[in-house]
Amino acid sequence: MNLKKILFISPTGTLDNGAEISIFHLMKFLKFKGYEIFNVVPQVYNKKQIEYHDQYKKAGIKTFFIPVLKWWWEDAPGGQPGSIEERNLYYRENICEIRDIIKKNEIDLVITNTVNMFQGAFAASAEGIPHYWLLHEFPKGEFGYYRDRIDFLEEYSEKIFCVTGELKAYLAPIFSKEVDTFAPYTQVSDQKLKEAKKIRFVSVGRVTDNKNQLELIKAFKIADVKDSELIFIGSWDSTYKKQCLEYIDTHHLKNIKFLGGLNDPWKMVTNKDICIFPSKLETYGLVYVEAILNGVPTIFSNNPGHLSVYNFFDFGHPYKLGNIEELAQKMKYMLENFVEEKNKSISIMPKARKEYQIQNVYKEIINSIESQDEISLNPIRHVANLYSTNEKKSRIARVEKKIRVFYNKAKNRVFPI
Q1: Which residues contact 360 (CB under 8 A, 6 or more apart)?
Q2: How would you label 48-63 residue by residue, b for 16+ Cβ within 10 Å and e otherwise?
Q3: What residues have CB less than 8 Å from 343, skipping those under 6 apart?
């Protein structure tokens, strides 16, 4: 098949998570290679969508913001707004909108980014075109719900790809279909880190329970490195940050700073910093990748996503998640041996950057697009309208919806391109 027009189904419509950021780079690369790229996202009336809209417009990617009630699976994270009848009405409406986009733009391939949405898979099958699924999540914890949907994923996909490393090892035994791999891509500039004189500990990432910054604060206390600073760069969950501040106040800790979210956090990182990533769970750990590519000595928790990065680059110092004493010891070791560790970090940079090229990390996806065979049509196409058509709205209801959507777009400056 000659696949030239590709439609992506995106999970959030914001550039504040690794799944969106990494696949945005894939879209830009495919466009560079001559493909025409389209994108569908949920319109959530969030100011972060302004940046998203502007970035995609700059990249020349046609993006459709569509109104949703719930964009993810019924029992996926995000709660269950409205009634089941209202959610189903919106699900059908969204499938219908995606089918219209496919037909009007003569789309050749649909790619769903993350396991959390099913609408693109169904729409592709209804229109008789191939569908790929990109999985970033382990089927456990908050994403454990999808373990029961693996049969749907396999039935409604020509190809399934997952993040390389630990996730691949986890999924291979529970899928009957072959699961290919990719490594999420993040772009780093060639700008050198700022010069500094004082060694600091730095953690980049949103301050949340899963990112586990409180464990790092406790280790900082045990390590008793009073002359060093502990810096957190990233926005925060207010409740979790309050827990961190209460611990800091209770134990009279000094030299701990929260700098908030920054568009380019690495502009605040210096050539004398040590990065620490204590997350409870990651699929890949893009900030860990960025630290390596920027030549920063790194300590990380041994969660599956971090170990996948470690296996790719073979660099960094792991500690056992939850072992605060071990983390404290690693912090003291890095401080005492900083010059040696920094030299190692600098020496690995050229090789790491050469291997971590976008054409390499997305090689299997790109090869599949370029060699996709004709597909077997899904019989669901014969009754697809039953699952994607709602009762026609009255003229008054349609006018009310247009006014409401226009108001929200104007309010948030989120317009379809």
Answers
A1: none
A2: ebeebbeebeebebbb
A3: none
Q: Amino acid identity, residue 179?
A: V
Q: How far apart are CA 109 and CA 376, in angstroms?
A: 14
**Measuring CA to CA, how many Å separate 18 from each of 23, 109, 217, 336?**
8, 23, 24, 33
Exposure b/e, 340-365, CB count within 10 A at least 16 = b: ebbeebeebeeebeeebebeebbeeb
Angle at 199 between CA 342 and CA 337, to 5 degrees: 45
CA 293 to CA 187: how far, in whole Å?
Answer: 9
Distances (CA, A) of 187 to 55, 263, 264, 272, 290: 14, 13, 11, 22, 8
Structure tokens at 366: 């790109």
Q: What is the pLDDT of residue 406?
A: 45
Give the pair of three-digit tokens for residue 24. 């945005």
| Rounded Cα gap, residues 10 and 114, in angstroms | 8
Say which residue the tokens 């060694």 belong to.
199
Q: Which two tokens stand for residue 359?
A: 């054409």
d(CA 347, CA 178): 37
Report whether pLDDT(185) > 70.
yes
The amino acid sitting at 278 is P
Exposed, middle or buried by CB within 10 Å (0-12, 13-18, 19+), for 319? Answer: buried
> CB atoms < 10 A from the CB of 236, how many?
18
**How much is the pLDDT for 407?**
45
Query: Could you report the per-residue pLDDT of 356-399, keeping only the tens digit for each?
Result: 999 999 999 999 999 877 776 676 766 767 666 766 654 445 44
Do β-strands 200-204 and 229-233 pair in parallel, antiparallel, or remain unpaired? parallel
User: What confidence score (pLDDT) does residue 394 get?
Assistant: 46
**Residues paired with residue 159 on neighbouring β-strands, in sequence order:** 132
Res 395: pLDDT? 45
CB 201 within 8 A of CB 220: yes
Percent of all residues in the chain with a pLDDT value above 90, rounded to a whole number: 79
Instruction: Judge whether 126 and 91 are in contact, CB under 8 Å.
Output: no
Give the separation between CA 174 and CA 42, rounded to whole angstroms: 30
**pLDDT computed for residue 3 by the predictor:** 76
**pLDDT tens figures, 85-139:** 999 999 999 999 999 999 999 999 999 999 999 999 999 999 999 999 999 999 9
Amino acid at 132: Y
pTM, whole model, 2 decimals?
0.86
